[in-house]
Amino acid sequence: MHITQLNRECLLHLFSFLDKNSRKNLAKTCHKLLEVFQDPLLWSLLNFHSPVELKKDNFLLGPALKHLSICWYSERVKVCNIEDWMKNSFQKDFCKRHDNTVSDFLLDVCNRCPNLLSLTLSGCGHVTDDCILQLLKNCPNLKSLKLENCVQITDHTLEAVTLHGTSLQTLHVDFCRNVTQAGLERVREKCPSVVLRAERSANMIPDSKPEKKLLLEKASRKLVQL
């Protein structure tokens, strides 16, 4: 029996075991398989391991999407997470190449995926509070928001959770060094049912400008002298 002789349910099941590239390559072989590739039921879950993958034409984005994960563990993440004033010209140029890649993709998700239930972002150093705010507003069914090592996330995201995260059950802001203890306490107070986790976050030193860093160093030296 040829694969195209299988019914649609069987083909969808087979496609579900393939990665995005394999699905796309198989869809190129005939019109019937292309229709299976374009079936929204196949795209309820999307995992990405690099911002570059977001630009590929090997997936379908739509209302069927329920679970989205963008986890980037490359060495490049370390560059993006360095404070801007500490970056050399090469590092700044490197970061600008994908400055808006993840944010633009997430804004597309806001417009096309209103039924999103869970979002996990790791190492996405360019994602901002405004981006998460739009997601919370446009995806009212979001139950799980997990942010790890997203250095631009601040208390503004925590405030957005208290205002718009009506369905949220789980919130992680691990290694998000610019959220504060006060912001976390507000979430605990206003959203007591939300399971909140913030490992290595509120006690970390936030991004600071050179002059602030100099003041901190001077204060430390005075304490040592005392």
UniProtKB/TrEMBL annotation:
Q: Does the keyword Electron transport apply?
A: no
Q: Which InterPro entries match?
A: F-box-like_dom_sf (IPR036047), F-box_dom (IPR001810), F-box_LRR-repeat (IPR050648), Leu-rich_rpt_Cys-con_subtyp (IPR006553), LRR_dom_sf (IPR032675)
Indicate the transmembrane segments per the record. Answer: none
* Taxonomy, superkingdom: Eukaryota
Kindly list the GO CC terms recorded for this protein: cytoplasm
Describe the location of the F-box domain by residue ranges. Answer: 9-46
Alphabetized UniProt keyword annotations: Ubl conjugation pathway
Q: Which PANTHER family match?
A: MITOCHONDRIAL ATP SYNTHASE COUPLING FACTOR B (PTHR13382)
Recorded protein name is FXL22 protein
Record the organism. Rhodinocichla rosea
